Structure formats: C-alpha cells, structure tokens
Amino acid sequence: MPELPAAYRTAPFDEHCAPRRLLRLFNGKWTTMVLHTLHLLGGSSRPGHLLRSIPDLSKKMMTQTLRELEQAGLIARTVQQIMPPVVEYSLTEMGQKFIEPIEMLYHWGIEHADLLDRVTAAQHSAKAAMKNQPESITEEC
C-alpha cells in the first residue's frame, strides 16, 4: 500500500482534510450498504428491490439515506411519469467512484473478521458491565 502524504501522517488533522471528509461521508449507518447494494444491483434499483436487498434496513432509514446520497450527488432519482409512477435510484458517475474505497473496507473486514469479532465481543462486554453497575444516588440538598 502506498504511504500517505506527509500532511496526513501527523496530527492534528484539519476538519476539512480529505480523510475526515471521507469518514464523515461514510458516517451514516446505511450509507455504504446502500451505495454498495446499488452497485451490486447493476448501478440502479427501484426502492422496493433495494429495501428487500438490505436486511434490517427500515423504509424510513432507507428514504433518509437515499435523500442524503442524492443531495451529495452520489445517486440520482428518476421518476417515470406513468400510472403508477415508477421511481428508480441509480449511482451517479461520482457515486461509482466511491465504490472502490467501500470495497476496500469490505475486503479488509473479510480478511480480519477475527479482529472484528474480538472488538464486537469487547463492546458487548463493556455494555453488559455498564448495565450491571449500580446507578449513583445523589442526595437532595
């Protein structure tokens, strides 16, 4: 893997630097899944098919994510004026360029599934420990 430019190897990182902007873009829980699923479906999909293709994604969250991606210019929404209207979402040219880093992350996750399992187990243990701690009682003055 090529080395990062010097500006990205020392802290602090400016709020507007490329890595932080990329991570902000991928910050939404469903953002990468929606983009990648559209890619796997040939670059476009009707909303119902997209929703059925992503387990646990609610219609509300799909709609919100699609709107955010459309506003960012990563997907386009097309409405065919027939009865009933047909809506289709498709990756834009810019959206297609974001598939490569998403797939790189997915490959890393597959190759390091054991590490992800350990992190998930540690997170679950920490949550369980916090639930078992007694709440602090504050006295009224």
Describe the structure.
A three-stranded antiparallel β-sheet has the order 1-3-2. The termini are far apart. 54% of the residues lie in helices and 10% in strands. It is mainly alpha-helical and 141 residues long. The chain is globular. The chain has a domain at 15-104: Winged helix-like DNA-binding domain superfamily/Winged helix DNA-binding domain (Arc Repressor Mutant, subunit A), CATH 1.10.10.10.
How big is the Rg? 20 Å
Distance between the termini: 61 Å
Spatial strand sequence of the major β-sheet: 1-3-2
Q: Give me the count of strands.
A: 3
CATH homologous superfamily of one domain? Winged helix-like DNA-binding domain superfamily/Winged helix DNA-binding domain
CATH fold descriptor of one domain: Arc Repressor Mutant, subunit A
Helix/strand layout:
Elements: H1 18-25, H2 31-40, E1 44-45, H3 47-53, H4 59-71, E2 75-80, E3 86-91, H5 93-97, H6 99-111, H7 113-132
Antiparallel strand pairs: 1-3, 2-3
Structure described in brief:
The protein has helices at residues 18-25, 31-40, 47-53, 59-71, 93-97, 99-111, 113-132; strands at 44-45, 75-80, 86-91. By secondary structure, it is mainly alpha-helical. A three-stranded antiparallel β-sheet has the order 1-3-2.
